Amino acid sequence: MNTKTAIVTGGNSGLGFSTAKKLCDNGIKTYIIGRTQEKTEAACKEIGPNAIPVIYDLNDLKNIPALIAELTKEAPIDILVNNAGINLKKEFTEVTDEDFLSVIHTNLLSVFAISREVVKNMKTNNGGSIINISSMASQYGIPKVIAYSSSKGAIESMTRAMAVELAPFGIRVNCIAPGFIKTKMSAAALDNDPERKNKVLGRTPMGFLGEPEDIGDAAYFFATAESKYVTGTVLPVDGGNSIGF
Predict the structure, then answer these.
(1) Which of 127, 162, 191, 204 is most exposed, with the fewest beta carbons within 10 Å of its own?
(2) Is there a contact between 102 and 58 (Cβ–Cβ < 8 Å)?
(3) Which of 31, 56, 148, 220 is the catalytic position?
(4) Is 56 tagged catalytic?
(5) Nearest to residue 23, comparing CAs of 233, 242, 226, 218?
(6) Average pLDDT, the chain
(7) How far apart, in whole angstroms, are the C-alpha atoms of residue 217 and residue 175?
């Protein structure tokens, strides 16, 4: 059996790390793209031999074609997980044009650019699976994250547009919208803000935070033949948060 090959952007921490680990643990060779050499190499060492560090800043759009050309020399890319992203918490009227553009650049333009290049490769190699990562910020309104919300809403629309256009080539495109997941960063933020934590848990029907592995499991489903008749979907992995009251 041929080993599948994946790319996970921002796979050196948080949800990206859990997703990369799930793929690697199931025998999928996974390129983990991260900006920080030490952090990315440490993550790959922790995950194991199937994890390969790729040090690259995805904001450098013009060199993404060369990056993908290099990564596909040995084997085609079967799975792409667009996980890398940044957030910005600011009052609406305080957000500058530069602030807004910076978030859109990282969260939307780089996702488009890397997807376009990987799709070229997938089209000549009998298809593949692309998994985009959205957010609860695209499911309902959250204050003080206007740029982030805009980028994630666009990711969900782009998922549907890509899915329709690429289906004839055997390329499936799906999206995961994580709810409130227990990462080091989110746990610290919520523990320091009991009111917000109560609000989060109060509108999450299941009544507890998700684990990073929950996102990895969903991504693995989309990455494999178990989801062979699924494309263009947005799956909230959120304990019911997006429909909670």
Answers:
(1) 191
(2) no
(3) 148
(4) no
(5) 218
(6) 96
(7) 13
Write the pLDDT tens digit of every residue in 31-77. 999 999 999 999 999 999 999 999 999 999 999 999 999 999 999 99
Q: What is the residue type of 215? A: I
Domains and CATH numbers, the chain: 5-180+212-237 (3.40.50.720)
Q: For residue range 92-119, what is the model confidence (pLDDT) as tens digits? A: 999 999 999 999 999 999 999 999 999 9
Using CA atoms, how far residue 119 sits from 30, 68, 126, 158, in Å, is 17, 10, 11, 14
Cα(202)–Cα(211) distance, rounded to whole angstroms? Answer: 18
Angle, CA of 6, 148 and 5, to the nearest 5°: 0
Least Cα distance to 201 among 162, 238, 165 occurs for 238
* Structure confidence at residue 1 as a pLDDT band (50, 70, 90): low
For residue 28 the two structure tokens come to: 């999928």
Say if CB 161 and CB 209 are below 8 A apart: no
What is the DSSP code string of 205-237? TT-SPBPHHHHHHHHHHHHSGGGTT--S-EEEE
